[in-house]
Amino acid sequence: MTAQQRPRRRGALRRAGSIVAALALVAGLAACTPTADEGGEGTGGATGERGEELVLQFRGAPMSLDPALQGTASGSVFTVLAYDPLIYQAPDGSLQPSLATEWEFTNDDNSVFEFTLRDDVEFASGEPLTPEAVVASMEYFVAKGGGNMPRVGPIEAVEAVDDSTVRITYSAPFADAPMSLTQTIMLGNIIGPDGLADPASLLQTMDGTGQYTYDADESVPDSEYIYERNPNYWNPDAQMWDRVKVQVITDPNAVLNAASTGQIDFGLGSPLLASAAESAGLEIVSAPFYNWALRLADVGGEVNPALADERVRAAIALAIDREAIVNALGGEHMSASDQLVVEGTAGYNDDIGWEFDLEEARRLMAEAGYEDGFEMTVLDSSLQDQQSQIALAISSALEEIGIQVTLEVDSTSIPSFAEKAESKQYEAVLWASNGGVGNAYADLRSVDTMSNPFGFLDEEMEKLYAESLGLTGDERQAVYERMSERWQEVAVTVPILTQYFVNYVGPKVTNVKASPQNPVMLPVGPEPEYNWQPAE
Fold first, then answer.
1. Measured between alpha carbons, how far is 518 from 88 in angstroms, rounded to an integer?
2. 397 φ, ψ to 5°?
3. 3-class DSSP state for residue 148?
4. FRET partner for 342 with CA separation of 20 to 30 A, picked from 7, 38, 140, 299?
């Protein structure tokens, strides 16, 4: 690696007028207002009374109703309502008992993990929760090989130890075992034996132990999904609502209108419409979440030979004026991102970060033989990058170093976008990651997926990742920070900005919480203190 390509310390960023101009029309849709307290503390506590109906919004149809195939983030609402996790990740990021009451590693190298099951639980079918049922569900999850598989660790075996204990044995140390059993990763969202007996049924029905049962007859696929309170739930005090409805609304303005008029109680908002939402009397709850990056997947140069040159990839990273993009978008609910993870999460490294340096970017392009630039196609999802605002900003910035970007925008669905990203037709994809370094890199290293369709793996990064899986605390943080540094050296992903979850909460609901450690806002948890509650 040349000296010019080493990680650069964070410094003052300069604005790029061309980016501001490119975004002026888009950003002018609305102004942002100051964010609610970061961490989204909400305003309420338990009222002692159950609400009649909670109506939520999601941007599209679920990836699947099967926990083994469902994605993470807010889309997991479709499954967590009906499937309890073994371990619950609370809004503050802490891990709390749910179907598992206690857990521990039983050896010194964090490769054998055991947990004890709650003994008063049954599935929607009426079958009891048993160690054997848990083993069968986990084996099914692994066999399906869904999108969360990169995060569940190198599982060698899952076995029932006795009538209340399950053991997972890993082929290598895996200190993230507890986290893999939360609603965030979903290995621990246990599917009942009746559902596993007919796996195809899991696409239309649900057999979980959750607070609600899915009503397929009342639901309308791709439009609204209905959940009724489970009368046999093991902790009825945690059931805050008789009924939950998830409505599919894709347009940001339609979401705001539905929230403002009381058609929905919770909506996935837009930073550009936050001011209008507050004016309409809605509470804004936000937390840092989406760490947007341009993923230069074609590191081998199969589609675009220019991207095989590390100097070109570094030039792309240096050509982005992140603060200019944030300012042009009205960035009260976003911040410039200059590395793999968001500040405040595991592995964030104060000593690194991409600076905006257009002169150096042009020099590197010339040195690599691309002084006149080249053409590049970028795949974007307008369902996530609303109106392709971030993609347009990147395109404008890269023009300054001669790179002509053609945007391919998918507006159909997230599964449609993922299928295109996996096709190897696109050398670069605009997408976001979340969580600490371990979580982000587990996704990025997953070969033959939308995150890594060309199968790039860096030997040093792989060694560091393997080392991190056996560590905890400060030792792990040190390795994570080196991983952040190394990922910047190879310049495979170009960080752009951190976009906050900006969500609208209507007057019927209180106690909606989030934090940088767990920014995903979901209405259910094993105890009332974690749950969205009806307002007094």
1. 11
2. -65, -40
3. coil
4. 299
Q: Dihedrals φ, ψ of 532, to 5°?
A: -70, 135
Q: Which residue has the higher pLDDT, 487 or 345?
A: 487
H/E element, 460: helix 459-468
Q: Residue 16 and residue 396: Cα distance in Å, rounded?
A: 10
Question: Could you give the domains of the chain?
Answer: 51-248+506-534 (3.40.190.10), 289-500 (3.10.105.10)
Q: How far is residue 430 from each of residues 380, 385, 390, 433, measured CA to CA in Å?
A: 5, 8, 8, 10
Distance, in Å, from the CA atom of 397 to the CA atom of 515, rounded to the nearest integer, reads 32
Residues in the chain, overall count:
536
Query: Is residue 282 within 8 Å of residue 509, measured between CB atoms?
Result: no
Helices 473-490 and 310-318 pack at an angle, to 10 degrees, of 100
Full DSSP string of 299-349: TT-SS-GGGGSHHHHHHHHHT--HHHHHHHTTGGGEEE--SSS-TTSTT--
User: What are the pLDDT digits (tens) for 424-454?
Assistant: 999 999 999 888 898 899 889 989 889 999 9
pLDDT tens, residue by residue, 315-335: 999 999 999 999 988 667 889
According to DSSP, the β-strands at 155-160 and 112-117 are: unpaired
- Decide if pLDDT at 245 tops 70: yes
At position 419, the amino acid (one-letter code) is E
> What is the pLDDT confidence band of residue 74, given thresholds at 50, 70 and 90?
confident
- pTM for the whole thing? 0.74
